[in-house]
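Hey,

The postdoc asked me to send both predictions to you directly instead of through the lab channel. I've kept everything plain text so nothing gets mangled by the mail client. Protein one:
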Amino acid sequence: MTVHLIYGVNQHSCSAEGKTIAFVSSQLQHVFNLPPSPQFLVNGRQVNADHVLADGEQLEFVKEFGQKGLGDVCTKEIFQRSFDVSDEEWSECKSAGLHTTELRGTEVFLIQEGADCLQRVRTLRGRSGRDVKLNPTEQRIIKVLTTNGPLTGDELASKVGRGFTSTFRQLLASMVRHCIVQNDNRGYSVLRHDL
């Protein structure tokens, strides 16, 4: 007895039969990062928030307006030429988690993602590992990830002895921005072992 819930790439199945969409929406507001007033589709048909969900239904939250799409993509060659990126810096960007995909035989990626990654790489190149001061929680995160390998944010918070709160997520995001850890489809893992 389950209801299948979808918002963008987020999907979840749970026992929500007998509950109104308004109730389910309020419970998932922060988990799915739902927009303030989404449209509701049940099995592809638009319904109101007072609709009571039945077993086996699929509820999809749809944003009424906004933009979709990839954004601007770039090739390695254009990126290197435009941003004066050396082969060594390109390799460091890839190691730091720059996600690329192949499109018609050419490796492409989002320009903004590439620029952000390049900035992190160049920032790290400008300082040695000795200059990076990790607080005790960050040190525990590095130790846990080094010992256990890739972990989801929730698993990592549990092993570090913290709740998976917005503060902990912000701490992880900061560590990703500073190329200390990375987050990919396997979970969080250590990028810098010299700290």
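Protein two:
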Amino acid sequence: WPNMKHDLQAICNQCITCKQAKSKVMPHGLPRSQSGKDCIFVVVDRFSKMTHFIACSKTNDETHVANLFFKEVVCLHGLSRIIVSDRDMRFLGTKLLFSIVAHPQANGQTEVVNRTIATLLCAIIQKNLTNWEKFLPHVEFAYNRTVHSTSSYSPFEVVYELHANVRANIKKRNEQYSRQANKGRVKVIFELGDWLWVHKQKERFPIQRNSKVKPRGDEPFHVLETINDNTYKLDLPTTYGEKFDSRMNPFEEGAND
């Protein structure tokens, strides 16, 4: 079928159901299903993009949601090393990275999936709105069968290793993203013995930075140890504390002579 993608795009552009489901209007909350559910617990694997859509209720407590997570996700895939949560609950023995309150972009992976769920449900359920829970497994299956641009394969193919070169495709695409993001940036690496200006952060030093006319930096300090290309141990006074994070600039000796 020559030009199949173009022809399918043209058909979708003429589909009234698709146009209505993909409206730019912000969607409202889900109607209560026939079994009393009124929200969807979304779990997304960042690497494979595989998802699980679990119907639940806004009144479910932490214990119930944790049990759902164990039953529907952990029993299939094992415990995650890191979970990015929207600050709604706590999980079992796993490192938590909380997204920022009222800032869904910080958990962008799930937010993209949420929009896709809403679009698919709108296209499928149409008139009988309380039937959305019935179609949720079908939506999950369709999503996990869809090819993603990052890996060039569907989540099912990535998770079940149907293609050996998935990692190579993802690595190549991530390198492209990295090159684009770092375009124009100059990498600066400091050596042992270098002098660095330390910029005082307002949050750590409120007294020293309580006025706009006060110096924003402190005297330069020696580099004692290189932890990595972005982290250095400096010859700092005890007032800074053992773990001090700050922006640093190289100091040119003789600049004030």
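Summary for protein two, as requested: The helical segments are 4-13, 16-21, 62-77, 108-125, 132-144, 155-159, 166-181.

Thanks,
C.
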